[in-house]
Write a structure and sequence with these properties.
The protein is an all-alpha fold. Helix content is about 80%, strand content about 0%.
């Protein structure tokens, strides 16, 4: 029995697999514990990757806000005439 490829599994997850191929892959997955396990592993890895990306985005936003706050503080300290009323 020929197993589906990792690329086909990824395309199935991405919903980019052509309809005919998608039907073949889904039928194969129903009857193949090996490919079911590979698919489960890819889904788990994708979930972990998405969680890492979410944390990275939060860190990037926090860094951006921190940089802005630092810039404002430095500007106030070293250019006090800009803030005199």
């Amino acid at each position: 029995m020929e197993h589906v490829s990792d690329v086909e599994l990824e395309q199935l997850l991405d919903e980019t697999l052509p309809l005919v191929k998608k039907t073949f892959v889904k039928l194969h997955l129903k009857g193949c514990p090996v490919c079911q396990g590979r698919m489960a592993k890819q889904q788990e890895e994708r979930h972990e990757f998405e969680a890492i990306i979410a944390v990275a985005r939060k860190l990037e936003e926090a860094d951006r806000k921190s940089t802005q706050a630092t810039h404002l503080m430095v500007t106030k300290v070293f250019q006090p005439t800009l803030f005199k009323q």
